[in-house]
Amino acid sequence: xxxxxxxxxxxxRLKVKSKPVKKVDADVRRLMDEMLETMxxxxxxxxxxxxxxxxxxxxxxxxxxxxxxxxPIRMANPEIIEVSxxxxxxxxxxxxxxxxxxxxxxxxxxxxxxxxxxxEIRELDADGILAVCVQHEIDHLDGILFxxxxxALKRNMILRKxxxxxxxxxxxx
Length: 173
Ligand code: NI
Fold this sequence. Notes:
By secondary structure, the chain is α+β, with helices and mostly antiparallel strands. Helices cover 29% and strands 25% of the residues.
């Protein structure tokens, strides 16, 4: 199992709508494990397959803190089937927009239905940071980044900085 390079915004691949998986088979399980390794290696708490260039509706999450036991969650075809009435704002970041953070308002709790690594249908009630993370990762599957939820002014500022950073890195290599 190897960690894969993470795509950094702005990049057209991050705007793609990912396709459902037909079945969680050995290939999808391998993808999930590679994603977890990539995510943990980058100290993230969530990752969508498209962030490593795979157009499949697969996400992984682990919101355990450093001093807690790892709690990896693997989801294929995740779907939000219930949301709370109340919205709450949390500061969000993203491995595809390194070192940029912004407050995003989302439903406080959600119920998500998905296929697990054994291809079993499961449902999860999420609140707190887990609810934020699930919604953020499912957004990725529809080509939506957290900066798409904030003002155009702030979004463009962040994307301009990332573009500049990419240029500098290209020049340095
Ligand atoms: Ni993200």
